[in-house]
Amino acid sequence: MDMTLVRKPGKSSAATWSLSDWYQHGPDTLSFLGAHDPDSNSAEPGSSATALPVTYPLGSAGSQVYISEYFQGDGSDKYIEIFNNTTDTRVNLSSYRLVRIDIDNTTGATNLANSWCLQLTGELEYYHTLVIVNGGFSASRLTTVDTIPTATTMDAYSTYRKFVESASFYPRAICYFGGNDPVYLVKDGTVIDAVGTPATSVSWGDKRAFVRKSGKTGSPVWDIADWDIIDTMTPAPGSVYNDGSDENAGGHIP
Ligand SMILES: [Ca+2]
Ligand SMILES: [Ca+2]
Fold it and tell me: How far is the centre of ligand 1, averaged over its atoms, from the C-alpha of 156 (Å)?
């Protein structure tokens, strides 16, 4: 049997081995190495980052709700956009979480202490987006983000809203990703969508925005071919923000 087995949440040692106690992954799946979450429901917002869903198994692809945009610009100009792809269903987000995994820029090692999980709440109207944005973003640079109505709490019924994370809450926020820190969308304990690649020091997202291509939906394993790539800054030296690179914020064409 050439595969990787990860014991399921809620399962512990048993005298008789049962395959049903284990999630089955492809051979040499290393993303769960060094961490285990005995209860995948234990990670809540504001909790310590000790029960992070880096241990969550890969699930089926997210087609109802998925990540529609990732944006990393200058400084704290960072956001993640979630899209409700259903045509007639207001989705309750309480079964969804966003997870940012901090990866060391030099060694490529996973750093759980600086990673974070955000429990989503409230409802998201069909064909609308929820934008999670770093509280330190520049309103003069991210002019489109600035115009999106702000949800005061994530309990607000959301049509085209942004949720602003605290600017002084590092690392307890999603929008503190660098160029090599993947972001996952987790539903009911399994990863249904991903931006980025785990455990590499190679930068894939620095000063870039990724906009999900029309016709593409969620995928638990990131494929850069599914995304349009936008350079948010001119190349160094003298790198400056590219005006309008956030123009896709808050809207999505599925
Ligand atoms: Ca990093
Ligand atoms: Ca968008």
Answer: 31
Q: Say if residues 217 and 178 touch (Cβ distance below 8 Å).
A: no
Q: Is 80 exceeded by the pLDDT of residue 93?
A: yes
Q: Which ligand is nearest to the CA of 252?
A: 2
Q: Calculate how far, in angstroms, residue 108's C-alpha sits from the geometric centre of ligand 1.
A: 8
pLDDT (tens digit, 9 = 90+) per residue, 15-30? 666 555 544 443 333 3
The structural domains of the chain, with segments of one domain joined by +, span 61-231
pLDDT digits (tens, 9 = 90+) for 29-83: 333 333 333 333 333 333 333 344 455 677 788 889 999 999 999 999 999 999 9
Mean pLDDT of the chain: 81
State pTM to two decimals.
Answer: 0.79
Q: Is the dihedral of CA 151, 149, 67, 180 positive or negative?
A: negative
Contact 183, 205 (CB under 8 A): no
Q: Where are the beta strands (DSSP E) in 19-109?
A: 22-25, 65-72, 78-84, 91-92, 96-103
Ligand 1 centre to CA of 105 (Å) is: 5
Residues 6+ apart with CB under 8 A from 243: 141
Ligand that comes closest to the CA of residue 79: 2
If you classify domain 61-231 with CATH, what class do you get? mainly beta
